[in-house]
From TrEMBL:
Belongs to the ABC transporter superfamily. GO terms for molecular function: ATP binding. CDD domains: ABC_Metallic_Cations. PROSITE patterns: ABC_TRANSPORTER_1, ABC_TRANSPORTER_2. This is ABC transporter ATP-binding protein.
Length: 252
């Protein structure tokens, strides 16, 4: 927020990254670079490892092999998990949920000041939820709740923003409003990475795409990465997955 461009201090380098669950690889030998200030979609079939990769970039999962080097500290990262991973029954108000963005940015023990309250109100206005401050989050629709989470990200003001399926189960108007915010973040120089299912949304709004089917299929300009041939390869790979495959042994 605040209209100041959030210059990204660095990109994200992935080198031969393999991520496993109980030694079963969900992402295999992936290498590439997310440029600072880029707007990148992670796309691919169900079970392709998209959320797993995002969690590894965030630092929640550690690669079993390879390295992820980020030009960002943990407090530089704004992360929106998949809706299914969020417990909305927790008795917390809309305002307090948004205020968590201020604490994420500058530490849980910092006193919340009047400036933060004003910024939280501004963030709620920016997502069209003025007047919702005292509502418990459990009383909101899915779209309104997603707007609250975007307001929290606005308050957090992070230079790296990671979004996992931000527009799933959200109506067209809310999706449009939230895409506008994503485009604004990109315009401000932030680095934005989003896991998305909808190829039309990716083509319309995301200049860069990383297409994954557990292995990297393509990474680059969206229209090239999402070529019919690459999509066919991704689909064919998804049909061949062995859920019980073991991790490859590291190269000698
Ligand atoms: N916590 C976990 N424990 C064990 N296996 C997991 C876990 N999370 C994901 N997986 C497995 O890892 C693989 C990749 O899952 P992931 O959720 O990253 O895929 P995705 O591309 O995000 O899928 P979707 O589009 O369906 O959300 C899948 O086979 C999934 O079952």
């Amino acid at each position: 927020m605040g209209g100041q461009p959030a210059m990204s201090s660095g990109g994200i380098d992935l080198t031969n990254v393999t991520i496993t669950y109980d030694r079963h690889p969900a992402v295999h030998h992936l290498s590439g670079r997310i440029e600072a200030g880029s707007l990148t979609a992670i796309a691919g079939p169900n079970g392709a490892g998209k959320s797993t990769l995002l969690k590894a970039i965030m630092g929640e999962l550690k690669p079993a092999e390879g390295k992820i080097i980020k030009g960002f500290t943990a407090s530089d990262i704004g992360y929106l998990p998949q809706a299914a991973e969020i417990n909305r029954r927790f008795p917390i108000s809309v305002l307090d949920t948004v205020m968590l963005g201020a604490w994420k940015r500058s530490g849980a023990f910092r006193a919340v000041g009047r400036q933060d309250m004003i910024k939280a109100g501004d963030a709620l206005s920016a997502v069209g939820l003025e007047g919702f401050e005292r509502r418990p989050v459990g009383s909101l629709s899915a779209g309104q709740f997603q707007r609250v989470l975007f307001a929290r990200l606005l308050l957090q003001d992070a230079p790296l923003i990671l979004l996992d399926e931000p527009f799933t189960a959200i109506d067209a108007r809310t999706t449009r409003d939230l895409i506008d915010i994503v485009c604004r973040w990109h315009g401000e120089g932030r680095t934005v990475v989003a896991v998305l299912h909808d190829f039309d949304q990716v083509r319309a709004h995301f200049p860069q795409t990383l297409l994954i089917a557990r292995e990297l299929i393509a990474w680059g300009r969206t229209e090239e990465a999402l070529s019919p041939a690459n999509l066919l390869t991704a689909r064919a790979m998804a049909e061949r997955w062995d859920e019980n495959a073991a991790i490859c042994e590291p190269a000698a």
